[in-house]
Amino acid sequence: MRFLINFALVLLLVACLVVWTLLPWYAVLGIVVLLALWLAFTRTGALALAATRIGIASLPQRWGASSVIVIGIAGVVGVLVAMLAMGEGFKATLDSTGGDDTAIVLRGGSQAETNSVITRDQEPLISALPGIARGADGRPLSSPELSQVVNLQSKADGTDTNVQFRGVGPSAWALRPELKIVEGRKFGPGLREMVVGRGAQRQFAGLEVGQQLKLANQSWTVVGVFESGDSHESELWADVDVLGPAYQRQAYQSVTVKLDGKDGFKKLKAALAGDPRLKLDVSTTRDYYAKQSQQLTTFLKWLGIIIGTVMAIGAIFGALNSMYAAVAGRSREIATMRAIGFRGLPVVTAVMLETMLLALLGGLLGALIAWLLFNGHTVSTLGNNFSQVVFQFRVSPELLWTGLKWALGIGLVGGLFPALRAARLPVTEALRAA
C-alpha cells in the first residue's frame, strides 16, 4: 500500500512538473505574488518566513553540500539552454530566408530543391506566367537555379564538409535585395567565377577573394564575398549557365520569382495549375525555408529536452541527498522550532523555500554561462539539402526563462521529500539524537 502511495505521489509530481514547465510568465508571476501575500499577511506564512530566515542564515556553514545543488542545476540549465539555442538559431536563420514577395517553383511533389527537376524548356513558360513582376527593362524577374553539393575543408577540424554551390540567373540579385557584396565584386556572366557567403568564408577554408578552387576538374576564382543575414550566407554562388555544364546538369532544380503585388502568388499558383505542360508546385520562399527548418529544429528541441531530463534526474538526486543531509544536520534546530510552536506547514515551506532559492541561484548561473558561451556562437550543421548551413546560437529571453523554470522545478522535487521528513520528525527523537 505504501508503495502505491509513493508511486502515485511520483506520478503527481511528474504531472505537476510538466504543467509547471508549460506555464507562461504571468502565471508564474501570479503564483509568486500569492505566495508572497501568504507569507506576509498570515500567521502561518509569517512562521514559515521566520523558519526560512533561520535556514538561510545557516547556509554558509554547509555551503559545500549546498553548492552541489547549485552546480548540478547550473549544469542542467546550461546544457538545456545551449541545445535549445542551437535549434532556435537554426530556425531563425532559415525563417529569415525568403519572404512573402518572392516564390519558388519546384517539380510537383518535391519537398526540396535536391529532388526537383525543371527542364530548360519549362523555364520560359514559367517566366511568362501572370503573377510574376517585371523589372525596369520589362523582363520578368525570374531566376532559374540549381544546387550542387561540393566538398570543402572545415576550418575547425580540417575535415571535408558539404557546401552548397548555387547557380543563379541574372535576376537573382534583384530578387534578393538583402544580399550585399561586402568585399570584391559580383561574378561575371559566362565566367568560372564565384561569390561566397560571409558565413561560408568563416567556416570553410580557401574562400578568400582572389583564391582559386578546383571544382569539377575546373578552376573557379573567388571574386567577391556577400552578406545576407540568412541561410544564403552558407552558399557559394556562380552563373547557372556555367555551373550546369561544369557538372553536366542539363536541367534546373528550381525557379525563384518576384511576385507582382499582393495577388501575385494567387495568380501564379492558378496559372501553374491551369497549364497541363507544367506539373509544378509553388510556395512563397518564406514558407519553403520555414518547412526546411522544421524537422531539424524539432529534433534539436527534443534532444535538448531528453538530455536535460536525464541531467535533471541526476540533479534531483543531488538535491535530495544534500537536503536530506541538511535536515539531518539541523534536526535539533528543527525540533526546537517544532517545540516552540512551529507546525508542520511552516517547516515544510521553509525547507522548500531554501531549496528553491538554491535552485534559483543554480538556474541563474547556468543561464548566465549559456548566454556568455553560446549566444552568437557560429556553427554549421547539415541541412535538408545535404549541405552545411551556417548559423548562430540564439539564446533568447524565452529560452532563459525556460531554463529558470526547469531549475525551479528541480528544486521543487528535490526539496519536497526532505521537507516532508523534516515536518514529520518527532520532536523527542530529534532532541535525543542531537
Please describe what this structure looks like.
By secondary structure, this protein is of the alpha+beta class. It has 2 domains: 21-95 and 293-433, no CATH class; 109-278, no CATH class. It is 55% helix and 17% strand. It is built from 14 helices and 12 strands. It has helices spanning 2-22, 25-41, 43-57, 63-95, 122-127, 172-175, 198-203, 240-246, 264-274, 285-329, 331-339, 344-374, 397-424, 427-433; strands spanning 102-107, 142-153, 160-168, 180-184, 193-197, 212-215, 218-227, 236-239, 254-258, 280-284, 378-382, 388-392. The strands form 2 sheets. Strands 1, 2, 3, 4, 5, 6, 7, 8, 9 and 10 form a 10-stranded mixed beta sheet that branches. It has a two-stranded antiparallel ribbon with strand order 11-12. Strand 11 (378-382) and strand 12 form a beta hairpin.
Assign the structural class, choosing from mainly alpha, mainly beta, alpha/beta, alpha+beta, or little secondary structure.
Answer: alpha+beta
Task: State the share of residues found in helices, binned by percent.
Answer: 55-70%
Mean pLDDT: 83
Element-level helix/strand string: HHHHEHEEHEEHEEEHEHEHHHEEHH
Gross geometry:
elongated
pLDDT < 50 stretches: none
Write the layout of secondary structure elements.
Blueprint: H1 2-22, H2 25-41, H3 43-57, H4 63-95, E1 102-107, H5 122-127, E2 142-153, E3 160-168, H6 172-175, E4 180-184, E5 193-197, H7 198-203, E6 212-215, E7 218-227, E8 236-239, H8 240-246, E9 254-258, H9 264-274, E10 280-284, H10 285-329, H11 331-339, H12 344-374, E11 378-382, E12 388-392, H13 397-424, H14 427-433
Parallel strand pairs: 3-8, 5-7
Antiparallel strand pairs: 1-9, 1-10, 2-3, 2-9, 4-7, 5-8, 6-7, 11-12
Helix pairs in contact: 1-13, 2-3, 3-12, 4-10, 4-12, 4-13, 10-13, 11-14, 12-13
